[in-house]
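Hi everyone, sorry if this is the wrong subforum. Our group has a chain we'd like a structural model of before ordering constructs, and none of us has done structure prediction before. Sequence below.
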Amino acid sequence: MKGTIAVLPGDGIGPEIMSSALRVLDAVNKRYKHEITTKTALVAGPAYDKYGIHLPEESIDICSKADAILFGAVGGPVDDQENPKWKDAEKNVILDLRKKFDLFANLRPLRVFAGAENFSPLKPELVAGMNVLIIRELVSGIYFGPRKRYKENDEEIAEETSRYKWSEIERIVRVAFAAATNRKKKLTVVDKANVLETSRLWREVVRSLEKEYKDVKVDFMFVDNAAQQLVRSPAIFDVIVTDNLFGDILSDLGGAVVGSLGLLPSASLNGKKFGLYEPVHGSAPDIAGKGIANPAAQILSLAMLLRHTFELGKEADVIEKAIRDVLASGDRTRDLGGKLSTEEFTSCVIDKLTS
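Answer:
Right subforum, don't worry. Here is the predicted structure as tokens:
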């Protein structure tokens, strides 16, 4: 297999955990005789330092010529967000890349690995074996609809509009049906159809497609109930599909249920196998440069990249198993109660991967 990955380390711990993922990629290349190369580009803080903007054309060009993007993290210190270097950095990078490459399908796997049940705030028996996939529509809805600020009778008013086309809903729902077909064949559509017209359109689209996926059992759930069930009984879910706003909230809630952002990868895909793959955690500037960041989510994001863009399922499975085996052995970084440095944890994963 030959291919190219655009590498965007970003801010904070991004460069450190990205280095770990690239070490794992190198091990995969050697074991399976692949020739997957990388090209690094600047975004966010480092790009602002050099170009005065967060997403320069040079970086977009590198991404355009690659098969996929492996992303690190973006953002500076919480108390310095009004600094032009950090202000709107996430919006200027992540949202612009999503729109530029039409990355409409966000896949957020929520898995609790054996031996990691105690990281969850829930009782271990509730999350044991948890394996939920949230699929979120990513480039439409209220985040991308018309918005305005104005005054009426001297009172300040703000408006955002949630807007969805049938075709925008259909393509994300098809991704969800396909995912459910390859899993437990259960799809939960989360909405607020008792109130919102966009949710009613979502239901119409889903019902129009059900006959094409007869093996998949579909149920509909209001978002408030879904939030309750994700906390009370997460095992009832297999694949969840929902809109941009609800998906944003539920995927973060699901991350809290799993109990460690350091173990959660994500993928944002278009319809042509191109995707942006990134850990869901932030840039953690408070621990940057200390060599203690947990690289697991970044490495698992690489595994998702190999599976979805390059269709290297076996290699992705091997990486994920290596992570599981390392955690089960008790070798962990400090955020998980262990003592390993970023590099030491990565070496443990590579040892499992190559043994």
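For your construct planning: DSSP finds twelve helices and twelve strands in the chain. The chain has two domains: 1-107+262-355, 117-259.
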